[in-house]
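We store chain and fold; example below:
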Amino acid sequence: MRDLDSDIFLGVFSGTPDMPSRTYHVPVMSKQVLASLQPTQGKLFLDGTAGGGGHSALLLESGAEVICLDQDPQALAACQERLKDFAPRARFVESNFRDAEQALNKIGETRPLDGALLDIGVSSHQLDEAERGFSLMREGPLDMRMSPSAKQSAADVVNTLSAAELTRIFQEYGEEQNARRIAAKIVEVRNTHPFKTTFDLVKTVESVAPRRSAKHPATKIFQALRIYVNDELDALRHALNTLPACLAPGARFAVITFHSLEDRIVKVFFREHSREWNDRPEWSKPRRNPNRIFKLLTPHPIAPSEGEMQRNPRSRSAKLRVVEII
């Protein structure tokens, strides 16, 4: 599994003359997103992961209206500041995209959406801010919460869960081969020195799994903890199941993922809900798929261009999948 976050953790995201290294959000595959969503004047879109407003700005510049969601209040504030000149066509709601339907109700929006975009994962700004605790390359509190409402920080997780549960988290969300050894070491260390900072965890992982390649041995551990703390995969599954009901016939639903765990969920969901026929060995003939709600527009995921990957290393593992509501 290639995790794009690891490129940023390892300092690859260093910037270019036209892309500052500490930018809040560089919109990934902007041309592909616009071509997929087809924004025009009068259309209504949901950006479920607005971040610093990169993708939202592109949609607004095309004349569309955009409802910008983000569970991170810092990100939403930056988005609102960036897009203030687009008012009232840009509206902002602090919300996880899993609760998009409730967010629309909150602002009294009853129109069906003409499109929705989810850009899954951690932002470069969140990694840049040491106090957020996302980056293993910067010392800060071991936090990793995208939303203030998240129940547990990463420090809470590593200081309280059993070795067995930590092993499961590292295996399931990080696909870490040394999960059992790392979990056992964490439990041993915390008995005398509870984990407080990102570097506390980095040093413990390094003591069990020394660095032998460009990828830091703690990369997958940080990824797994971030996914667990923010319940990212369940949030994605919930959004996939509920957002289509908010979309008009002919609307486009686009999702950008950055690692195989997310992409697999999106790929399977889009495939199972766009297939026209189901067939099983025990059936005499194929049957129409009662769960079909999509037309699949991307049989294979759209990837960024070589030029974009060079300009913006964050895009390297990005995959864009798009469906149309039928």
